[in-house]
Design a protein that fits this description.
single chain, mainly alpha, Rossmann fold, Serine Threonine Protein Phosphatase 5, Tetratricopeptide repeat, 3 domains, five-stranded parallel beta sheet, coiled coil, TPR-like_helical_dom_sf
Length: 561
């Protein structure tokens, strides 16, 4: 027996909130709402007023402008209202915007509003769209109620019945999309595949193509998925969604290097999503891309401004990533980032309450700065008496503490923190997959490699100058392990291997190292001088380089898996 479902709210009892900073928009929308029989209309001209109204009443419709106020845009307000449960699964949300750039549209689509209206608004179009959305609430009520409750099987039962009702033909496209969503939620990918294939015979909507691709990837039907992906990446309405889908697929397959490339593209096409930037940050760390790591966390801080995500921790994470990048660079370039980190740290420290709120974290960051400046005694004083405890610390706080201990040579403390962090990560979520892999990687590297990339470069230079080629080779191998995208390290390694070859030949492992370094240098942008040196070393060693970059072609990537 099917669950008794409450009746839908009659239109005359619906409550609507319009949030926009333009009085004309309120007048036009309110007039159209009254025309279609909705009398309970509230207006808010800024975010503060909107939140006050929502705290007093639950609204059925929320019309939300992108440029709602100078300090908080529509994305931030939407997230905050959702976080406070003022907007939930039963709320009909309509976004309003005069801007229609691809990046903005991608970001709005990702929020999954019920509709998107482009300004200037036209009264007759508003009335027709409102009538449509009201009818969706009334006529598809049972199916939507079941979906919101997670009862996807019952939702499909009602949907199939409604598809047989000719009076609902105007809503059949929406109903069909909801059926596809239900099949994917139920993980019935074989049925979903057949369903989307059938729809494609008569429909060309982006969601149909994405649904079929998702179904195929979930079943590892890669040959056909490859063909679909190649097509979808050419379509402006599916490109962003396809990159996002591929990123999640390769994460689940633990192909983190390929997932990173897809996530970068998705973030570029829809840059405002904080959670995606967080995933991008995690993937950048896992792939040793310290410049990418800094870029991702800078975007997080930029787009979190005045949102529920905004916090001093984000500023601290930007400083930490700046230091991470500085540890991998040469003196001149590294000093530039180090000075930036010091300046931003001092600005943070002077903010009201920070010296108490983040005292330990700031000291740890200071210690890392001092280590980079070769002032290890002063750094040791700051870390004196500190233990490997992670109590009360965020994961980022603990990771930074671990790095500080490692840079001071306190390996036992460093490994202890990593062990504690790994125990905190459980389940099969993105966090456990990517972050746990990162923690495992850090544990191996911090145990086996006692120095930073910068220190290893300096040691290699001294060893090479003294003609100690094997120690120089080992130093650079470790440096390239820590910074596998570092062109200067790869070039130096190739230089050392070339000299070793001229002095008496190479082992199989050394030849493989030369090939890896050469491949990196053939796929990265180099100056004319660097390219000339690379070619000379490759010619002298006599190695062949396969410079195919699998991430350049998603089709090739899918086939590879």
């Amino acid at each position: 027996m099917l669950e008794k479902i409450p009746a839908p709210t009659p239109r005359e009892e619906l409550h609507v909130l319009v949030i926009d900073n333009q009085g004309l928009v309120h007048d036009v929308v309110a007039s159209a709402l009254h025309e279609v029989g909705i009398k309970n209309v509230s207006s808010a001209f800024n975010a503060f007023h909107a939140k006050r109204l929502c705290s007093a009443k639950q609204y059925d419709f929320v019309l939300l402008a992108f440029n709602v106020s100078h300090d908080k845009d529509g994305f931030h307000l939407f997230e905050e209202l959702k976080h406070l449960n003022h907007i939930n699964d039963t709320t009909t949300v309509i976004f309003l915007s005069a801007e229609t750039s691809p990046e903005l549209v991608n970001c709005i689509v990702e929020l999954q509003p019920d509709d998107f209206w482009v300004k200037p608004l036209q009264r007759n179009k508003i009335e027709s769209r409102l009538e449509y959305l009201i009818q969706v609430r009334l006529k598809l009520h049972k199916m939507l109620h079941c979906m919101h409750a997670g009862d996807y099987s019952t939702a499909m039962y009602y949907a199939q019945r409604q598809l047989k009702d000719p009076s609902l033909s105007e809503y059949h496209t929406r109903i069909k999309r909801l059926i596809g969503d239900c099949l994917l939620q139920l993980r019935d990918y074989e049925t979903a595949e057949d369903y989307f294939r059938t729809l494609l015979q008569s429909m060309d909507h982006a969601w149909v193509h994405i649904g079929l691709t998702r179904s195929l990837l979930r079943q590892d039907e890669l040959e056909e998925a490859q063909l679909l992906v190649d097509d979808l990446l050419q379509r402006p309405d599916t490109r962003f969604l396809t990159f996002d889908l591929l990123a999640q697929y390769f994460i689940e397959k633990e192909q983190f290097d390929i997932a990173y490339e897809q996530m970068k593209e998705a973030s570029r096409l829809a840059p405002r999503n904080i959670e995606r930037n967080k995933r991008l940050w995690d993937l950048a760390r896992l792939n040793h891309d310290k410049a990418g790591q800094l870029s991702a966390v800078q975007n997080m801080a930029k787009f979190a401004k005045n949102s529920i995500h905004d916090s001093p921790q984000l500023t601290l994470n930007v400083i930490r990533s700046t230091i991470d990048l500085a540890t991998s660079l040469g003196n001149a370039e590294g000093d530039k980032y180090l000075k930036r980190a010091e300046y931003e740290l001092e600005e943070l420290r002077q903010q009201k309450g920070m010296q108490n709120q983040l005292a330990e974290q700031i000291d740890v960051v200071k210690s890392r700065v001092l280590c980079l400046k070769d002032q290890k005694r002063e750094a040791e004083k700051l870390m004196e008496g500190r233990t490997a405890s992670t109590d009360g610390l965020s994961m980022e706080d603990s990771l930074d503490k671990m790095k500080a201990f490692h840079e001071l040579g306190m390996r036992e403390h460093c490994v202890s923190i990593l062990d504690k962090l790994r125990k905190q990560i459980e389940g099969d979520t993105f966090t456990s997959q990517v972050v746990n892999e990162y923690l495992n990687q850090e544990s191996i590297e911090r145990t086996e490699i006692q120095f930073t990339t910068k220190e290893l470069k300096q040691m290699a230079a001294v060893n090479y100058k003294e003609n100690r080629l094997i120690p120089a080779y080992n130093n650079l191998q470790q440096a390239l392990t820590l910074s596998p995208k570092d062109k200067q390290v790869a070039l130096s390694l190739l230089k050392v291997i070339t000299q070793m070859h001229l002095d008496g030949g190479l082992s199989e492992e050394q030849m493989k190292s030369a090939q890896r370094a050469a491949k990196l240098l053939c796929t990265e942008e180099l100056s004319a001088t660097q390219a000339d040196k690379r070619d000379q070393y490759i010619a002298r060693i006599g190695i062949e380089v396969d410079d195919t970059n699998a991430a350049d072609s998603v089709g090739m990537v899918v086939a590879k898996v």
